[in-house]
Amino acid sequence: MKKFSRIKTRIIAGILSAVTVFSVGAAAVTSASAAEIDNVTSVKYNGNTIYYSDDYFRHSSTEYDPHLATLSCIMTNFSVPLDNPDSLDDSNWYLSQPERLYGFFGSIGFKDFETNDDYVSRSRFDSIGVGCANKQVDDYTVIGVGIRSGGYFREWSNNVYLGDGTKSDYMHEGWFNAANKTIDYINEYISANRITGKIKVWIAGFSRGGATTNLAAGLLDNKIQNNEEIFSSDVTLTRDDLYAYTFEAPQGANYNSETVEKPGSELYNNIYNIVNPNDLVPKVAMSEYGFTRFGTDKFITTEFYDPENYADNRDVFLNLYEENGTPRSEYKADDFKMYGTPLKKMAPLVAELVACLPAGVADIVSQIKDGTILVEDNTKANYDANIAAYLLLEEMTKNIGSRSEYCSKYQQGVSDFLLTLMNDVDALKKEELYGLLSKVLLSSAVSSVPGFGDLAEDAIRDILPNDANTDEVIDAIEPLLEVVAQTYWNRPNELISFGLYVKDIFQNHDNGVNIAHLEAQDTYYVSNYNSNHGILMPTVELRDSADFGRVTCKDYNDIGLYNENGKINLVSVKGAKGVKSEIKKCEKGFAVGYYSYATEEGLELFMPVNRKYILNMMSYSVKPKHTVSYSAFYQSVSPNSDCRFRDGRGNFSDWYFMNSDFLQRGVNMNYYK
Fold first, then answer.
1. What percent of the chain has pLDDT over 70?
2. 460-465: long-range contacts (C-beta < 8 A, 24 or more apart)?
3. What is the pLDDT of residue 261?
4. For residue 486, which of 397, 552, 414 has the smallest C-alpha distance?
5. Per-position DSSP letters for 483-527, written without gaps between them
6. 521-560 tens-digit pLDDT
7. Structure pTM?
8. In this structure, are residues 593 and 656 in contact, taking their beta carbons and an 8 Å threshold?
9. Which of 118, 153, 364, 395 has CA atoms 20 to 30 A from the CA of 544?
10. Bridge partners, residue 582, by sequence
């Protein structure tokens, strides 16, 4: 445990010069939180406006508080050091990692800031940085717990360490261990500071820090329910006094766990996970292996889920994004589009792409997007990054196999590879990482073409540190490169499009973007912006669900999706016998992917749930003998979702499948909770 005394004097001076405090009355700001806020303190720290009130902790933790959510997101942002160490001998850099988090806690009146040893030391495969501070609120001691949520370098290798479940009750082994270390450190902090009586614990994390926070809070909930002595016997903690907020957290809990309540249990209603559906990171570890999150997921709204209001909602977000210091022109996360991949043009393109330096990737990608090499794929209508990511992960997981197969064949190699790339001083910068990922995805797409099989390996060799054992690293990552190449043949356009838009897609995993989204749902920030600019922006509420319905059809090439009374056509794909079908219509809020092969056609529909539809299908198969089929299922994103699909005959099922030789089939599709 580190009391942070070596740099306290310097930080305190910085806080005094950087913090401005003033009070905001209830008349100036209208509260939308679970508690009615009578007096709020506004703090200026490091260029950020922070709203704080003790009232955030005067309501049950099971009631979502948009103000505490925003504050928690800002806390995770300040848990990250801003730069990289110049050398491994730069002990002052490692000691100063928690400076910004210390300043954040001090700016809102929390004291006695301390960290665990991992936070002020060189990172390891299994380290986790934790910082704590406390504040007296009424007769409670509120303990703020910040999990380091970036700048963790070698800890990257731990993120892919799923484990086979035997050492972690099926939960993600890396984050499970980090969560237990976090709980242990909170206990150390309580003892070291001689805290007694009733306590409240407020814990938050982003990305890896979010996954750790999610598991730590879930494990604490179970310990509280089982009346286990978690911390010192001199303190008491109830579930209503455990406040947990995560942001873009990967999935570390598991439905197969036996020592804890199932993830969908109401036990975890004090855990809130803020998720952007277009972010890839919260989709791993893979749902197919039973992974999910504890608690309640709340989703940032996207165009797919709210097409009517999204333009206005985005303006609110972008105004606040720019207010925080980033020009709105730099926001590219919504630019994702699907592109076609003519193989004869791809091979020379990828050869040129792999040969260029990371700085040249953007220029070549620009040439791709202008239509010279690839063209926008109009057979994938209204696809967003969310849908493309789901389809890619689904296909990759299928090619990898079971969780045990992942552990035995891929886990160690990928972990070692990341350990090499993210090794402190030589760690890749974001731009380099995006460039490498783009190269690997695009080059893997043509790896089976004669003469191009080593392109992905060459891209990796070029970026490895000079002291790396290159052949050993390549051998370790080779099985995963094969999976990516296999994925291309079933999901070519999704993989290529993802490779083209890597940087834009991962902007959805930027905490600066996240903060602006959280501020957009927070009346304090919206009201303040309106007052300063003389306008009247509304707040943008988070969604409670990002589930969608999915229907896959084979050898039906004349399809219409209608509303429940059959009067409004939502999606229309028209064709004729032996003729390639065309997408004639696809309303916003719906997505359709069309596939044409030598002997058959395929179609995928994606639609909002909790609505009724009529699906009409006419078959004109190009095969002389065929079995026409379709299947429909509910794509559940939230662990608490229990929605099911109802087929036209009124039967409930999670998966409905039908084979038919009839030329026409009309089906009523209803989604119910």
1. 78
2. 460/436, 463/358, 463/421, 463/428, 463/432, 463/436, 464/420, 464/421, 465/420, 465/423, 465/426
3. 96
4. 397
5. HHHHHHHHSHHHHHHHHHTHHHHHGGG-HHHHHHHHHHT-HHHHH
6. 999 999 999 999 999 999 999 999 888 888 888 777 678 8
7. 0.89
8. no
9. 395
10. 574
